[in-house]
């Protein structure tokens, strides 16, 4: 039986096992773990009804991304939980533990600054980007590090917490400036720290107006008493407060801290947008773009759970969107660029509430019908719906989590979703633009070197270390884009020592002998890594041995090993290209890609030669047995640590096993 037939048989056997397990699924909430043929967990999901949700993967049609996931499933497990909240927490923990390939995985690629009052005997105020569960008080996030540092600078002037990381033996300048209580030499009661911490907490949570009034009163008193320097200090503090707390376009009528989420999906990708509202003002936004493979809203909720699982700096309220509907039919975002301005949000809460009342035949009725259809679908498939997911998240985090249906909060969520949609649209438009520019660059490069068309480019590079493990690699660019299915690797057979010219001759000969023999497409241009010598070697083989007349160019590198010059012709002559042109950038990409491919192949071969030299030198160990040993034990080190009995499952007798162990241990000693 050939390998393909055997694979089909194993696949059918696995699917039959899945069908039996599907019949035993319970009508309960829980998590499910999808596995591939190697038993590796490739996806973790949650459901309010396990039976319906897991069955939905193996019935009906799916989009391309979900179909890719389903095609790899060979088994599954499930864990029953007592509630949706338990399922949410369990799913989050399982994803963090197993890092499944098809799950949304939260990457901490960018963290924002927070202000932190440390949980110490003598607390400090500091700026940090790491939010830990250390019982400290966190405030933020801030738009940027400058804003956080300026706020800290202001608070340092106003509140005398210690500034030093390690307690000194004597008072410092901050004490003499009235900006430190000097706990290094004086006893400071806890009540003093509690009062300062409370005032900072009040200031950062919207109480700055009261503090500003108090500073104005003190400034007036200092001026009346002719303490002008003190009055100037207080005036500067008031100016700083006004600057830092300046009103922004996007505001709400209250001063609550909120995280507002929105998301959009297209072509198997999801964008999640977070708007950070602090003290009623929007201070920051963050976006994450990633591929998703399961149900859109379930994967979105999975992202939310991961986001808050290690972040104790919770807002007072979290606003979430419902499942994505076919609402694009009622009108989608047409703006290009950032939608974040949204002045209409400011001060329109009452108008928004009155405008949100549905009228006959209005878009609201369509929206409600779509919501109902979505909820029915979620119910049928056992997906945790928007309200259920929000309730579970609220129970877990202990803060209000709301899916607004109308009014100002609905507008805020809509704004986040609109920005997510624009970001996703920008991603695809940038890809299209890049492809268009690349195609134009390839066409222009063809004109520069005198070719009517330049659709297919084949590039070569050699790699060795002082002649050891010599290899070469070829990459193919079609219309300016890499075509990885066409890449080829070559082990050098006839060249001894580090001879780059003869290596180039061998590779060119082997490649284009095969092209002629198998009637493969010829390239419009051949690119070699090097100058006149490499170009001449390639042309010599092509024209004098194979009778092919394909243009050959060389890419010469500078002292920093960067692409410096293009050479072409026989004899080769340099071609002038602006260093900032798209054509030069295309050549750089080609040279970097073929070099990367050659180097990675050379490393593989060097690593294998180090392994094979140890095992192949042992009598009775051939290629097949060497592979069997490495597959069973995992490494030469583990083979060396094995006992004679460990070789029996491989049908290796005591005599040969002893020879293997003695040879490896002797080589080590």
UniProtKB/TrEMBL annotation:
Belongs to the UvrC family. One of its GO terms (biological process) is nucleotide-excision repair. HAMAP family: UvrC. Residues 209-244 form the UVR domain. Residues 260-542 form the UvrC family homology region profile domain. Keywords: Coiled coil, Cytoplasm, DNA damage, DNA excision, DNA repair, Excision nuclease, SOS response. The gene is uvrC. It is found in: Cytoplasm. The lineage of its organism: Bacteria, Bacillati, Bacillota, Bacilli, Bacillales. The UvrABC repair system catalyzes the recognition and processing of DNA lesions. UvrC both incises the 5' and 3' sides of the lesion. The N-terminal half is responsible for the 3' incision and the C-terminal half is responsible for the 5' incision. GO terms for molecular function: DNA binding; excinuclease ABC activity. Interacts with UvrB in an incision complex. Residues 205-232 form a coiled coil. Pfam families: GIY-YIG, HHH_5, UVR, UvrC_RNaseH, UvrC_RNaseH_dom. This is UvrABC system protein C. The keyword DNA repair applies. It comes from Paenibacillus glucanolyticus.
